[in-house]
Amino acid sequence: MASLRTQTERPGLIARLRTWFGEILAELRRAVKPTPEETTQMMLVVIGFVLVVALWFAFWDVVLTAITTRIDAWIESLQR
């Protein structure tokens, strides 16, 4: 009966933390650092993507500002 209870119990906090840190260290040992060329290439991709998104938002900002300015002028002309 006692053996059944020990099989279903969870390990203590210290044992779980030790296992968790051990798994983290094992994963860090498997990690591969990118080469300087790969880092430069990834950085350029990110910068390019940010520029494309910035241009997209700038385009819509100009378009929507023009539309709202015309609507505002139209409403003012109706009130005169």
What does this structure look like?
With 80 residues, the chain is mostly helical. It has one domain. It is built from 3 helices and no strands. It is elongated, with a radius of gyration of 30 Å.
Q: In terms of topology, how is this protein built?
A:
Elements: H1 2-8, H2 13-30, H3 36-79
Key attributes of the depicted protein:
single chain; 80 residues; mainly alpha; 3 helices
Brief overview:
This protein is an all-alpha fold and 80 residues long.
Task: From the alpha carbons, calculate the radius of gyration and give it in angstroms.
Answer: 30 Å
- Number of distinct helices: 3
The parts where pLDDT drops under 50 for at least 5 residues are: none
**How large is the share of residues in beta strands?**
under 5%
In total, the number of strands is 0
Task: Choose one word for the global shape.
Answer: elongated
